[in-house]
Amino acid sequence: MATNAALELADQDEEVAAHVTTMLSEIGSLFEKSLVAGQQSGQVTTRVSADLLAAYLVNTIEGTRVMEKTRPGKEKLQALAQFSLSALDPAVVAPQEQRAPDRRSEAT
Known about the structure:
This protein is an all-alpha fold. It has helices spanning 2-8, 14-41, 50-68, 74-85, 103-106.
């Protein structure tokens, strides 16, 4: 629902945009909590901050939902999911640590 609302209405309706932003932020916060726990246990990379990884996962999921509309095929979607999850792997070397911008501060 958030994906369709963002694509179809968010640029035309400030209320919808705010609602979509809140929904995606809440999803990102849930991911971030889990990612922090994974980082503390050594199951998730610490080379990238949990907030950036959370934003990446939200973006990946929402992008996948858009891509699904084009019917790319199960194999391609599975390959993309595996590739995306490799970003969490502590054995994979990533570029320098970065943080996702705080969307709440952008709105003020």
